[in-house]
Design goal:
The chain starts with a strand and ends with a strand. It has no helices and 30 strands. It is globular. With 320 residues, it is an all-beta fold. The protein has one domain: Methylamine Dehydrogenase, Chain H (7 Propeller). The chain has a four-stranded antiparallel sheet with strand order 3-30-29-28, with no helix packed on it. A four-stranded antiparallel sheet has the order 4-5-6-7, with no helix packed on it.
Length: 320
């Protein structure tokens, strides 16, 4: 039976806490070659799934129709963290090992390396997003955010407000760009013309904003690692709302908003995939298909949620 949750803190909305929902038969997992480590995933063209292979370097490609896994290595030292598919079907990877952004074109099976300026130093590159101009923005946890001008190939990096922490990043339907700072506990709105950042403070202090995703209304959803909350920022009026995930010790890592504006979250505390409906303010939790799944990113396409299970080294598809 579903129960009304108590209010967890001032300004946190009431939400309904469910029992775990049935997940049998809804997950399909794909085993990867020995040594591969899927950190992030992204939907590729023709039903393919891209994953960032952080341990062996390069981009992995899963064909869910056949289960076949291909690998495109980026060379010695490669260790990508994030992967994001642009509107043109190209995969963009933040390669911390190479200290570079790598663009992979599945049509030609070729990749291009865009190295950060030498003076930037090691940046612990994290994730990427594509703005309305087609340029690629990225984050680095050492305290950096930046842009690849795809036409010229120029890479520009800026020092982030509050120093260390830039982590997840997202672009809105309008092409504006926002990032989350895990160490800084804020969301940064980037002016894509000037590179200047406006710091947006979630209501919960020291919440550990980890990942961000924009919905169809250009609201920014935030997974809060330290607080166990999911929060949303509405740029139309500057308002915030937040909800605590179910369970006694939620650890909200990844966030993704699907084509129906349902919000999907990875809860490391309960080892579950969590669905949140912003209209009803109800949660639904699905046990992940492996212990200590360590889902670090969520992405998807119509009817499917895509997950990297970095603990057991699997890529998973969840049927909605």
């Amino acid at each position: 039976m579903k129960r009304l949750a108590a209010t967890f803190a001032v300004g946190i909305a009431l939400a309904v806490l469910p029992q775990l929902a049935a997940a049998e038969g809804r997950f399909t997992t794909f085993k990867l070659p020995e040594g591969h480590y899927p950190h992030d995933v992204s939907p590729g063209p023709d039903g393919l799934i891209f994953y960032a292979d952080q341990r062996r370097g390069g981009v992995g490609i899963v064909d869910p129709k056949t289960g076949k896994v291909e690998k495109v290595p980026f060379g010695e030292g490669s260790a990508p963290h994030g992967v994001f598919t642009g509107p043109d079907g190209k995969a963009w990877l933040t390669d911390g090992g190479l200290n570079a952004i790598v663009g992979y074109d599945p049509a030609t099976k070729k990749f291009t390396v865009y190295r950060l300026p030498e003076e930037t130093g090691y940046t612990n590159l994290n994730t990427a997003a594509v703005d309305r101009n087609g340029d690629v923005w990225f984050t680095g946890q050492t305290g950096v955010y930046g842009k690849v001008d795809v036409k010229s190939g120029k890479v520009t990096a800026w020092a982030a407000p509050k120093g260390r922490g830039p982590y997840g990043i997202t672009a809105t339907k309008k092409g504006d760009v926002y990032y989350a700072s895990l160490a800084g506990s804020y969301v940064g709105r980037i002016d894509i013309e000037t590179g200047k950042v406006t710091v947006l403070e979630p209501p919960t202090k020291n919440q550990g904003a980890r990942r961000v995703w924009a919905d169809s209304k250009d609201r920014i959803w935030v997974s809060e690692w330290n607080s166990g909350n999911v929060s949303v920022y509405d740029p139309a009026n500057g308002s915030w709302k937040q909800w605590r995930l179910p369970g006694s010790n939620p650890k909200t890592y990844a966030v993704y908003v699907d084509d129906e504006d349902k919000v999907w979250l990875a809860d490391w505390g309960a080892n579950t995939l969590v669905k949140f409906d912003p209209v009803t303010e109800k949660f639904e939790s699905f046990p992940l298909p492996a212990e200590t799944a360590n889902v670090r990113q969520i992405d998807g396409r119509k009817g499917e949620i895509l997950l990297p299970l970095s603990g057991p080294r699997l890529v998973a598809v969840f049927k909605k």
